[in-house]
Amino acid sequence: MKKFLSSFSIFLLLVAAVTSCNKNEDIVAKPIVTGLEVGTGNNKTAYAGSDLHIEGDIVATGTIENVVVEIHPKAGSGWLFNQAFTDGYTGNKNANFHEHIEIPANAAAGDYNLQVKVADKSGNVTVVESALKIERKNPSAALIFTKITGTGVEGHGDHFHGLAAAIEGASDTILFDEKGTAISNAHLHLEPESIYKIGLKTYNASGAETQNQYIANAAAAANYKAFLTGGSFILNPNSPAGEGAIFQTRETQYADGTTVSGATSTTGVISYFIVGHANQGEKDVAFVMRKLNANVKPTITRVDWNRTDYATAFAGTNELELKFEIHAEDGHDH
Hints:
Elements: H1 2-26, E1 32-38, E2 45-47, E3 51-59, E4 64-73, E5 81-85, E6 94-102, E7 110-120, E8 125-135, E9 141-149, E10 154-156, E11 159-161, E12 167-176, E13 182-184, E14 187-190, E15 195-202, H2 218-221, E16 224-230, E17 246-249, E18 270-274, E19 281-292, H3 310-313, E20 316-328
Parallel strand pairs: 2-8, 14-20
Antiparallel strand pairs: 1-3, 3-6, 4-5, 4-7, 7-8, 9-12, 9-15, 10-11, 12-13, 15-18, 16-19, 17-18, 19-20
């Protein structure tokens, strides 16, 4: 009898061990979030009336169900945000979570808590927290990128054709502080083969627009020219397949209503730009409005916009230097 009980006990232990192993095999690891960035350069700061950059990498053994971002004040009342993101994430085991959240212009300034909650299809939830400061700050400058389309609108050599018939679509705006640092939308996503109209705006301390100072009339405009520096772009004339970048300054009128005449007379308060497939990826760039010495502007051609030696080649001083990133990938235009 004792021998039977002993054998039976061993049997029960074996069953328990196998059951335990099976249970362990059924346990799905919780999602993991790494490299969370909140704000431009992970500065944990955003500005009322602009957008907040959030990015991080997700690994979910049990596949992602959704990603929820929640923002609320640390104390008292203030702006509240709660949204579940699924598009591009649900059903994936690995994902780069990258979103830009619009902050209302009337959002209260102050200290906030931000949570990123990743839920998987097994019911696991991982929560990652970050501090966030919302500030109210008037921008010093802005670049407005507007996608354009239309029959006959295309890049050719160092310039564009058909712009007079262009149809304007969605826009993305980058705001900059007085130092030229982007305070919103610093990571600009562009489609490589799409053409974008770039509108420059500058503001005084009262918030009034001042960009027309650069094109007040022909005499004033003779002192200024825009460049798009950095990024080591392959220019379209240097691309055998015609898939390079074109940047063309192209106002048609000065602020006084007179007509701009000649390719070298344009300034860059209005410009047009295409990245081109030859330049896909991430690029650190700066939009520069340069005040030129006398008689320098007529020497600047359409292929000089990205020269690394522009500062020595074209004597003068930079009035504006607006720094941001371009992310050029197919299917990314937001």
